[in-house]
Every structure is written in C-alpha cells, then in structure tokens.
Amino acid sequence: MQATKLISTLALLGVIGSAVAATEADIDRTFLPYKNGFPSFPGLTPGMTISKANVEQFKDILAVGTYKVVKEGLVELKVGASSDFNLTKAYIDATRANLNKAKLGPKNGDLEGYVSGRPFPEDPDAKDPRAGEKLAWNYKYGVNWGDNAAISPFWWKYRNMASGQVERTIKTEFHFLNIKHRVKDAPVPEVLPNPSNLYRAIYMKVDAPEDLKNTQLLIQRYEDDQKIDDAYLYLGFQRRVRRLATGQATDAFLGSDLMIEDFEGYNGRVSDMKWTYKGTRNILLPMWNHDELALSDEFKDPEGYKYVSFGGQGGCFFQGSYQLRKVHVVEATPVNPGHPISKRVFYMDSQLQNLNGAIEIYDRKGELWKVWSVGKSHADHHLAMNKGAGIGIDDAFSMIDIQSKHCTTGQFKGQVGFQKNPPSLFQVQNLRGGD
Q1: How far, CA to CA in Å, does 157 sit from each of 70, 168, 235, 279?
Q2: Is residue 9 assigned to a domain?
C-alpha cells in the first residue's frame, strides 16, 4: 500500500514522467499538425475581414485580448489561409533521436535528461497537473530564432493610442545565440568554452536616437533553470556597465510599454512561473507571408527591404493577416507575490510552440492590462537568406496598454544565421568596448 501511494505521489510530481511514453505518432502530430487538413470555422474564409460589425460570430476563435480590441473598434483583422510553418529538419531529427529522454524533476524548473529537440512532443494532457510546465520547457528549448540570429535594424515606436502621436522612435539591434543544445549551425551541439554552463544569450544595442545611443543590454541564461539570469546594462552617457537587479526585469524598459521579461513573448525562467495548461483550441493567430503583405518603406532600407506597416487606432496595430491555427492555451502565474502582474495567458501555436502569437497580461488586481502579440512570417517568404531556415520569423510586434491607451510597436528585419552573432558579442567585455 505504501509503495502504491509513493508511486502515485511521484507520478503527480512528474518525477517518473508521463504514464505513456511519447511515440513517432506524437512527433508527427506536434510537427505536422495539419497533415490531414487545416482547421475551419463556419463563415470564416481567407480574404475576409473581421471587424466590430461581425466579431461576435468569430468570438470562439479569437484570443480574449484580440476579441476585445476588435470589439472596441480599435482594429480590423484580415484573414489569411492557414499554412504549414515547418520547422528545421535538424530540430525534428533531434527530437526523434532523444525521444522520452527528458523528464521533469521534483520541483518546477527542474528538467533531467534533456539533450536537444522538443523535450515533450506529445500533446498536452488535461489530466496532467504539470502539462503547462512541459509546454514551457518546449518553449525554452524551442527553435524560436534558431541557433543564431539578429534583428537589425529593429525599429521601436512609442505611441499615444488616442491621438496617434508617435512620441519616440528608437533604432535598435538584437542578437541571439544558443550556446547549448544547438542542432543546425556549427558548432553543434555547444559553443565552447562555456565555463559558466550557459544555455542562451541575448545582446541588444541602441543605435539611435543620440540620447540613448550605445545603450546595451546583455542577458545570459543558465542551463540550470534554478539559477537567476545574469543581466548587464551599459549606458553610453555614463560609460559604465552595471548589473541589473532581478526586479528590473519587470520595470518598463527604456520608457516603453515592455518589460525585459516580455521580450520574445516571455523572457524569464520556467521556475519563475506556475504554468497551467488550459486546453487546446483553434485560434486565429497573426501569421503570414511577408512578401504578400502591403508593406511600408518608411525607413528607406538601403537593401530595399520593406517593413510590416501599422494601422488601426493610433497606428498601434500591425497590418498582417491572421490564420486559424491549432493552439495550446497556457496560463503563467508569477511565483513571486511582489511581481507587478497577476498572470499572463499565452496562445501557443502547436506547431512552432513559441509563446508570442497572442498574449494577455493582467495587472495585480486581475484586470486585463496589456494585449501583446508578435506577428510571424514564413521564412521562405522573407529575406532570401532566411529561406529554408525552418523557423517562424518574428516580423512585427504590438504591445497595447489598454488601461493607459498607449502602445509600443516594433518592426523587424530578422536575419537567421551566424554571421552577425560571434560568441564574443555575448560577453560582458564586449559591453565595455562597445563605443
């Protein structure tokens, strides 16, 4: 009897893993969810527009925040045809080679046996109390920007949503490097030396305007999820590097509507949140082919690249199209009771398993505070260098503070590859030499 009770307790904690091992069929379902056809919904057709006038008809396939902004007449959505966003073969092969090796440890934020690929390719089980945590691990060790990538330039605009006034325009560049669990670009599987056992790093630099120029941010994330990230900020006008305190990841970043923790949809540790799986549904997400949109050339890119345009109330909404997708809904509640939000709700595309397609952020009173989304382009319809990259290219973002009627928008020139991402860029010494 005691042995049976112990096994039941361990199973609840996730120590002994899933009751049923993942199979080849699970790999098919997770990476090829539309093998037998795309989802549909009565009255929904590609090319149509969802507006305030007809939004009630489509409420069941809209994220809560998306429904709200359309219902209030702040934006209209153009519907596109659903399509496959196939991930890189190297990542799928890694998932297959390491099937069932990853196991949850006893505590939230513990993962054992992970090598590479998607840790938990099986569909989430509503009966599994740690299903949400498994999806969080799939995000952490997902493809996202791949082994290396840069967004350069990356334009941010701060806007008054009521008046449409652009209060500030900032030109930045972001760089991403997977240090461990690399699957495609040399060196595979790890960038060495790696004495601190880091998993991933993000480097950001401001190129304009003059008062912020050369501001730099470096985030180093450890393989051990229980270890707090190292984060460093270099302020050009002070000409010194300072280490960021943990709480500063939830401050407004450079006066924008984003926290550092909001980057990429969620830029924190698995262990920082309690993750709850809320079910799988068909939801409209902003996913498109970049070269098929009506694009903007406002920044006069010297290489002729055109950015996603913005419109809607205050110019706060990217003008991309929305696809009906299979989506896992995940709720994340901060472990720290002093956190400035009460929860985030993520609508995770089941194929890509990123966390930034559609997000709702609730304040400490439990009221909807921000509607946050990143639109993605298929890699084969973006820059020539991205063709065949096997990722969803982050193409534009919109962070709407619905309480203060303010927004921050972003327009990306994402470039997948190692050329702009030497490992030396992700070291503290680089910040000091950034001038």
Answers
A1: 22, 6, 20, 34
A2: yes
**Bond before 193 cis per omega within 30 degrees:** yes
Distance from C-alpha of 382 to C-alpha of 38, rounded to nearest angstrom: 23
Residues shown for the chain: 435
pLDDT digits (tens, 9 = 90+) for 136-176: 999 999 999 999 999 999 999 999 999 999 999 999 999 99
Residue whose C-alpha is closest to residue 308's, from 234, 362, 255, 381: 381
- Closest of 408, 364, 416 to residue 392, by C-alpha: 416
- Total-model pTM: 0.94
The token duo for 391 is 């990722």
**What is the Cα–Cα distance from 136 to 131, expressed in whole angstroms?**
9
CA angle 67, 71, 73 (to 5 degrees): 125
Backbone angles phi, psi at 273, to 5 degrees: -130, 155
pLDDT tens string 122-140: 999 999 999 999 999 999 9
The answer to whether position 339 is within a domain reads no
Please check whether residue 167 lies inside any domain of the structure: no
Range of the domain at 31: 2-35+87-140
- In the block, residue with structure tokens 């093998």: 35
Backbone angles phi, psi at 360, to 5 degrees: -115, 135
CB 103 within 8 A of CB 113: yes
185: alpha, beta or left? (left if phi > 0; alpha if psi -120 to 50): beta
CA–CA gap between residue 105 and residue 113 (Å, rounded): 10
Question: Number of structural domains, the chain?
Answer: 1
Mode of pairing for the β-strands spanning 321-334 and 77-79: parallel
Q: Is residue 28 part of a domain?
A: yes
Rounded to an integer, what distance in angstroms lies between the CA atom of residue 263 and that of residue 154? Answer: 13
